[in-house]
Amino acid sequence: MRPPHFRLASTLLTVACLLPTLPSCTLVATKPARNPTDHVFVRYWPAPEGSLKLAVKDFIDIKGQVTSAGSAYLAKNNPPARQDAACLRLARARGVHIVGKTNASEFGVTSSGVNPHFGTPRSPLTDRKHRVISGGSSSGSAVSVATGMADIAFGTDTGGSVRIPAACCGVYGLKTTYGLVSLKGVFPMSPKNLDTVGPLAKTIPNLATGMSLLKAGFEDEYAEARAEHPNGRSLRVGRLYVDGTDPEIDRAIDSALKKSGFRIVKLDKAFKDAWDQAQKDGLTIAVGDAWTNDEPYSNKRGVSSVTKATILLGRIEHVTGGYEAALKRKAAWQRTLRRTFGRVDLIALPTLKQLPPAIPRFGGSVLFEAVTFSLQNTVSFNYSGNPAIAIPVPVQGKEVPVTSLQLVGPRLSEAELLNAGRIVSSKRL
Fold this sequence. Notes:
This protein has helices spanning 4-17, 72-77, 89-93, 139-146, 163-169, 204-212, 218-228, 247-260, 269-294, 305-320, 322-340, 366-373, 379-384, 414-426; strands at 41-44, 53-57, 97-102, 152-157, 172-175, 196-201, 236-239, 263-266, 346-350, 388-394, 402-408. The protein is an alpha/beta fold. It has a single domain (4-426), classed as Amidase signature (AS) domain (Amidase signature (AS) enzymes, Alpha-Beta Complex). The chain has an 11-stranded mixed beta sheet, with helices on both faces. A hairpin with a 7-residue loop joins strand 10 (388-394) and strand 11.
């Protein structure tokens, strides 16, 4: 049996080649960044010296600005937003300076960060010769904090779109509990099932500040978590090993967990089997909801062929019954996680199975996007609604010197996850 990403790629290629208005069913033009700061923002406003700098993914409405969701079609046809998205309320109240709207994968339906309209940011972890992806869909948000252009960035995460770019760029990214942060004024991909808003930052203190701009009172919750668990010895962490992971990445993850002093519990095959199914079901829901919300753009000129193919794949999931079956299995996966969190505090696994691949020299394709998405270990926790944090950890003997540890917690455990991230980062010195 072929791996799931090859089956996904085959389906996407078939759908793409059936699109009658496109001259090519695989390739789209892209403008890879020569410098890490290229193509990060679609709009940029310099900050006064000494101010806290917040970058906002261009899926989040800013009053008076067009929300493009990574699409030239929307950039041209969307009216300016009448008001800020609800998730910006605390940042505005505290006088935080918004430095710009960040670039992203079109409509958030792909995970590489390749954007044929506004250019493709590259990860700052690599040099000009070895340009690797920044990850999607919150690519510009991750690069903005990795390069210091912003102190904090807001991204959206439907299937890993905060954690994947965080992993590709060597920064921290937090996927919040589903429903915790309002989605009013956020471009929808899966608002009824998977969509979340979360912060990215280069340091844990900045990530905590970013979370405090999304949830009132978070500072107190984080202080309580630090006081309750000042070190890792009192935290039980369930370790999930994922098939297809680079052995050096597994070693890096295990080393980071050991140095942090966590009490490690290896999760059993029954849990792994449930997780494997949740990964498949989460992807099914993601593409199914992309069809529901983005179908009006599936025949618009100016929308890329890769994006159109991904949207139309969601229609297939609805027609064949895969979408409804995946929805029915969600409650069982949530119960499995609740039982698991009865015996461990957190779950640990790599954010990505492999290091980020190179930006395609001749543009993106449905095959490249399918293979890239197959590297993620993230969508199962969007499917369940649990919060998760991506934490950079060093990896040995690789061109990209950093990989990413993903820690997952029970619902509303964002403070505990940041505290665990603090413990891990303190042991890397």
